Amino acid sequence: MSAVNDSMVVAHRNLIRMGRIPEMLIFGLIQPIMFVVLFTYVFGGSITVGSSSSTQAYREFLMAGIFAQTVTFATAGAGAGIADDMHKGLIDRFRSLPMARGAVLTGRTLADLVQTALTLVVLAVVALIVGWRTHENIGKVLAGFGLLLLLGYAFSWIGALIGLSVRTPEAATSGGLIWLFPLTFISNAFVDANHLPAFLRHIAEWNPFSATVQACRELFGNLPPGFNASDAWPMQHPVWASLIWSVVIILAFRTLAVRKYRRAAG
Amino acid sequence: MPGAIYAEGLVKTFGDVRALDGVDLDVPEGTVLGLLGPNGAGKTTAVRCLTTLLRPDSGKAVVAGVDVLKQPDAVRRSIGLSGQFAAVDEYLTGRENLHMVGRLYQMRAKEAKARAVELLEQFHLTDAADRPTKTYSGGMRRRLDLAAALVVSPPVMFMDEPTTGLDPRNRQQLWEVIKQLVSGGTTLLLTTQYLEEADHLAHDIAVVDHGRVIAQGTSDQLKARTGGERVEVVVHERDHIRTAAEVLTGFGKGDTTVEEHTRKLIVPVTGGAKLLAEVIRELDGRGIEIDDIALRRPTLDDVFLSLTGHVAEERPEGDGAPGSKQDTRRNTGKDSNEEAAK
Questions:
Q1: Are B224 and B215 a contacting pair, CB within 8 Å?
Q2: Residues B212-254: pLDDT tens digits?
Q3: What order do you get walking across the sheet with B66-67 strand by strand?
Q4: Could you tell me the CA-to-CA distances from B33 to A198, B81, B186 in Å, in that order?
Q5: Looking at chain B from residue 41 to 70, which residues have their Cβ under 8 Å from any Cβ of chain A?
Q6: Does A90 touch chain B (CB under 8 A)?
Q7: A181-225 per-position pLDDT tens digit
Q8: Nearest CA to A85 among A97, A76, A73, A93?
Q9: Do B52 and A96 touch (CB under 8 A)?
C-alpha cells in the first residue's frame, strides 16, 4: 500500500515541478516538431517507402517513427531529474525516510509518463496540421499511442538507472541521449528497413524500437503502399514484439535501478 | 545500556581510503554529541552509516534501540536527518516540501498539512510558506531543511554541518532553534568544523581525524588536556617573525606556532600576567614592534590544533604540509570564533 502511496506523493511532487518549469516541456517539444517539419518537407518525396515515393506516403510513414523517437527522449528527462535530485541531496533525504523502496524512481517515471503523454498530444496535432492521417478505427489508433507510452515508460527506467550512475545532471542528459540517436536511426523509424543493407537491416528488424514503430504503423493504418514486412518475427508480430520488449526493459531496468538506488552514494 | 546512538568499530572504505577506521560512539539519550573534525575526517561518512544511507564494511550501530544494519526501516521511522546541503526541492514551496516529507513519513494528508503549518510557524517561515524555496535565502533554506527533519518529532536527530556556509546572524538563529530542540529531550548528533559551534551546542565532543575518534569528552575536559595559557603576538614587521619566535620559545613551555601571513606567533606558557610583562619587555628590548599581544586561555581551537597536530606529526611524509594545513584549519576556527563573538 505504502508503495503506491509513496509513488503517488513523489509523482505529484515531480508534476508540480514540471508545472513550475514549463520550459522543460517546451524545449522537449521543439526537436520532434522540427523533425516533423524537416523530414516532411526536406526528405518527403525523395525517400521511397514500400513502393511509393509520394510525399503523402512518406509523411504518414514518418510520423510513427517520430512519435516513437520522441517518447524515448523521456530517458534523458528521467535521468537528468534523478541525477539532479542526487546532486542536491534530495535522494539522501528520501532514503532516510521510512518510505517504500523504489517509490522515488516510480514516482519520477510516472511523472515522466504524464509529460510524454502531453508531448504526444501536441506532436499529434502538429502532425495532423502537416497532413498526417490515420486510416484505422479510433480503438486501434489509441492502442498505438498506448504502445508508445509504454515504450516511453520503459525508456524512462533506463534513464533512471543512468541518472543514478552519473555524477552530474549534465552527464545524465548527454548519457541519456547519445545512444538514442544510433538506436533510433538504425531502425525503421525514418526509412523503410527493407531498403537497408542486410547487416543493418537485421539490426533494425530486431531493434526494440522498430517493433513499436512497426506496430504503430499497422495500428494507425500508415503502412505505405506496396510495403512487405520482412520475415523477422518482430516485424511479423510487431504489437506483441513491442509489448514484450517494453515489459522486459521495464522489469530489467527497474530491478537494476532500484538496487542502485538502495546503495546510492550521494 | 547503550545510548540513543551507539556505534562500535565502524569501518568504511572507499577504494584505498579508509573513511571510517573503527569509530566508536555512545550518545546517551537526550544529550548532544558534537562530531568535530576537518573536511574529509569522516564525519559525514559516520552520519551516513548511522542514518542507513551507507552500509559500513564492518562494525555495529544501534540507533534508538534498533540495529541499523538489521532493521534499517525501523531506524528510519525514528530519525530525522538534516544534511550538509539543504535538501529541499527548490521548485516546491516551503509548505509543499514539508507536506511531501510528512506524507513520506506515512502521515495522513490532513495530518501532514497541519504539521507543515505548525513547523512553518515554529521556524518563522509562515510568510514565505507559499513561495518556491528557490527564492529563499540560505538561512531560510536551512531552517526549512531542519523543519523537514523534524516533521515526525523524531527522538534521534542527525545534523551534518547544519550551519556551514551561513552568515553569523543566521548561524546564531539556527543555534537557538537547535537548543530549543534539545531542551525538548531530543538526542542529537551534530557534525561541525566550527569549534565554537561544538563548544556552544554539544554536551560531549568527539574529535575525528582520518576516520578515527582521537579524543572525546566535554569541552572543559578537552581544554584541560591541552594545558594552560598561551601568549599570542602579532609583530609589525614580517622580518621580525624569526627573532620574535626565538624570544617566545625562550619563555614558552612548548614550540612556537607561526602564522606567516598574519604575522602571528603563539606559544604555550605558564606564569600569567607577570610573564606577559616580561615578554613585552624582552621584545621591546630587541626592538621588535608589535601590533598586538595577548594572554589567552585555551579554546577548543587549541585542543583541535594540538590533537590533529599530533596525528600530522606521526605521518612520515607529513613534515611540511601539515603545518600549513593546521594554519588553515586554525583560521577557520578563528573566524567562527570572532563571528560568534560579535
A1: no
A2: 998 898 887 877 776 667 888 999 888 888 888 888 888 888 8
A3: B17-27, B5-14, B58-63, B66-67
A4: 69, 15, 12
A5: 48, 51-55
A6: yes
A7: 899 999 999 989 888 999 999 999 999 999 999 999 999 999 988
A8: A93
A9: yes
A2 in reach of chain B (CB within 8 A): yes
CA–CA dist B163, B149 (Å, integer): 15
Give the pLDDT confidence of B284-335 residue by residue, as tens digits: 888 888 899 888 876 666 677 777 764 333 333 333 333 333 333 333 333 3
- Helices A238-263 and A103-129, packing angle to 10 deg: 140
Chain A residues in contact with B55 (beta carbon < 8 A)? 263
Backbone phi, psi, residue A189, to 5°: -65, -45
- Please, are residues B115 and A119 in contact by the beta-carbon 8 Å criterion? no
**pTM for this entry:** 0.80
More confident residue, B109 or B335: B109
Give, for B80, the enclosing helix (H) or strand (E).
strand B79-82
Instruction: Give one word for A91, left, alpha or beta, with left for phi > 0 and alpha for psi -120 to 50.
Output: alpha
Cα separation, A264 vs A86, in Å, equals: 8
- Grid cell digits, residue A73: 527522449
Give the mutation candidate from A93, A99, A108, A259 for the B interface (greatest B CB count, under 10 A).
Answer: A93
Residues recorded for chain A? 266
